[in-house]
Amino acid sequence: MNAVHEVLVSPRQAPTGPARRARPPAWPWLWALLALAALLWPGTTAWAAPAGRIAVIDLAGRQVLAPKSPTRIVCLGPGCLRLIVYLQAQDKLAGIEGLEKRFPRGRPYYLAHPELGRLPVITPGGVAGINQKPDMEKVLKVRPQVIFATYLERRVADEIQSVLGVPVVVLAYGELGSFEPAKVAASLRLAGRILDRRQRAEQVLAFLESNLADLRQRASGAGPSPSVFVGGLGFKGAQGLGSTNAGYLPFTWLGLDNVAASLGRRGRAMMAKERLLALDPEVIFIDGGGLALVAADHAARPGFYRALSAFKCGRVHLLHPYNWYATNLGIALADAYAIGKVTHPAGFSDVEPALKTDEIYSFLVGQPVHRHMVEQYGELGGRPTFLGEKKP
């Protein structure tokens, strides 16, 4: 059985009602299913490839003939470039999307490689470009040997490939704003095979698995944990405190009692202020992407915030946004360690979030760029600046 079953277990809804604080079951059958899916997912072939080519099945189920170890590639769609950087294949890039240059901050893979900003722009990118044809002339101008793309339907991929005469290989994270573990694993392995980075792909998956196992072990043996809530999560732009997620990944990994699960839905949700007051979570985390809106609301409605126990007791902490042009797995892991430090201080007593975060970034993207994230969003796991200094 392949170890990929440990990689990034999908969010699941926490129990509600009186049993809400119980930890979720391990669901070994789900892990086994994910492992089997990763093994059988696209990447293997049933037909012979001509010399110098690799025959693959991409994440859209398309049969593609790609050149062996290409030296000139481009990436289209949310998160595609990030996977290539994780594979240490950024030196093969011949151009990038305009969005990457327009918003250079907030994404460790780009912060770690400012040289990417010197590459020519091949298409605007961004949410508006999802499942759309790129600027064909600009793509062709940089002479790519392979085009990697995410969130692209097979019909569009086939059309781009036919018009440009360049193999298009579709990768996947899953639904936009989340991800499916088996698809992420399969995408890394598929791209790794084409780019001659198979060993690196396995190293990345093993690294993710090892950190998730460490998080679970630290949390499981550290005693009871407080109820938690995360607000300010971005969705098509910055959002206020009520923007949350019932399946927030770091909470799921740590087995925490996420009060948003009481909303009865999976994924992103909006929580009314009255409901948040009624649930009154013991610890509140604020996503850095929505920090300015929460600060403004705090100034406008101080009474509401004073009524929340977490604000009264100084148990409000800052997190860095990990959904920025698809899921930044490194940031999600860093957030989880910072959260664990707050919710399970005994289990995470030897963890220094800043050092751990740079360890994660150094492995995944090649540089310890945590300080750049702090400059933009604030101290990971720290007290939001709009609350002022904590009183002794």
Structure, described:
The protein is 39% helix and 14% strand. By secondary structure, the chain is an alpha/beta fold. The strands form four sheets. The protein has a five-stranded parallel beta sheet, with helices on both faces. The chain is elongated, with a radius of gyration of 21 Å.
| Strand order across the largest sheet | 5-4-3-6-7
> What is the CATH architecture descriptor of the largest domain?
3-Layer(aba) Sandwich
CATH topology of the largest domain: Rossmann fold
CATH class of the largest domain: Alpha Beta
Uncertain residue segments: 1-40
Fraction of residues in helices? 25-40%
Series of H and E elements = HEEEHEHHEHEHEHHEEHEEHEHHHEHHH
Strand content: 5-15%
Q: State the shape.
A: elongated
Tally of extended strands?
A: 13
